[in-house]
Amino acid sequence: MRKKITVIGAGNVGATTAQRLVEKELGDVVLVDVVDGVPQGKGLDMFQSGAVEGFDMKIVGSNAYEETAGSDICVMTAGLARKPGMSRDDLLKKNEEIVADCIAKVTRHSRDLTIIMVTNPLDAMCEVARRVSKLPKEKVFGMAGILDCARMRAFISMELNIHATVLGGHGDTMVPLPRYSTVAGIPITELLTAERVDAIVKRTAKGGIEIVNFLKTGSAYYAPSAAAVEMVDAVLKDKKKILPCAVLLEGEYGINGLYVGVPVTLGAAGVEKIHQLNLTEAEAAALRKSADSVAELCALLTC
């Protein structure tokens, strides 16, 4: 049976996500946006590319949510984008309104739904989606760690070929873990100087704003869309894949009632298991600091 995926937001992230989803033939896609004609035009353009790319998934654009009825997954990308000098925290109030409105509308037509949040500030927006949708925590999670790890891997790959691990909130307080970032199983701390490792960690934490500063009028979308699609793929194909995601913690890592990025198993049920790493005292302290920043944002939510 073909799956159905709703992508909310037809901007760069949403449109690129929709294109990747149909090209991978993960399901039929409904692309939703408030701007008249934009999702319809982009959806039709993508659908016509199928004759060249060889996919037969259906993709349609809409300004309303009736078309989304019966969706299996919703990828939420709509929201105000960051501009130079703007932190993710600055986005909180505006994007809370947008996320709350969109999630209320999509869940009105699809109750057996998994929500993957991409809108920033990511961790707080996951909490908004959970509160508004009233879905279980396993069904609402965010695309943070995969993107952050991809950025860290990209920076390390300039020197080595690697696997990277990043915990914490999706923002400046994220916690890259060099000890768990490896090349052929060897920690990068044994292959690179402390100065190089520190530079990579700092660049990873600032990875999003580095792109914002280059673009000046937009933010990243190729890597975020790829990360979101990897999560959709793990859920729809029940891959039981271990990926770093923003999930609601209830005592794990000593954190309670907050969305924080940690390694989880993603499958058909959504978040099927939370994996706890053995952290050093310094790493645990950095994770608590990151969680505290998420808590400060969530305290400002009004929904």
Structural class: alpha/beta
Order of neighbouring strands in the sheet with most strands: 3-2-1-4-5-6
Largest sheet: 6 strands, parallel
Q: How many beta-strand runs?
A: 13
Radius of gyration from the CA trace? 19 Å
Task: Please mark out the parts with pLDDT under 50 across 5 or more consecutive residues, or reply none.
Answer: none
Topology-level CATH name of the largest domain: L-2-Hydroxyisocaproate Dehydrogenase, Chain A, domain 2
Task: Specify the CATH class of the largest domain.
Answer: Alpha Beta
Mean pLDDT equals: 92
Number of domains: 2
Order of helices and strands: EHEHEEHEHEHEEEEHHHEEEH
Give the proportion of residues in helices.
Answer: 40-55%
What's the architecture of the largest domain in CATH terms?
Alpha-Beta Complex
> Roughly how many Å apart are the termini?
36 Å
Beta-strand content bin: 15-25%
Determine the number of helices (DSSP H or I, runs of at least 4 residues).
9
CATH superfamily caption of the largest domain: Lactate dehydrogenase/glycoside hydrolase, family 4, C-terminal
Shape: globular
List the helices and strands and how they pair.
Layout: E1 4-8, H1 12-23, E2 28-32, H2 38-53, E3 59-62, E4 73-76, H3 92-109, E5 114-117, H4 122-133, E6 140-142, H5 145-157, E7 166-167, E8 175-176, E9 182-183, E10 186-187, H6 194-205, H7 207-215, H8 222-236, E11 241-250, E12 256-267, E13 270-274, H9 281-298
Parallel strand pairs: 1-2, 1-4, 2-3, 4-5, 5-6
Antiparallel strand pairs: 7-8, 9-10, 11-12, 12-13
Helix pairs in contact: 1-2, 1-8, 3-4, 5-6, 5-8
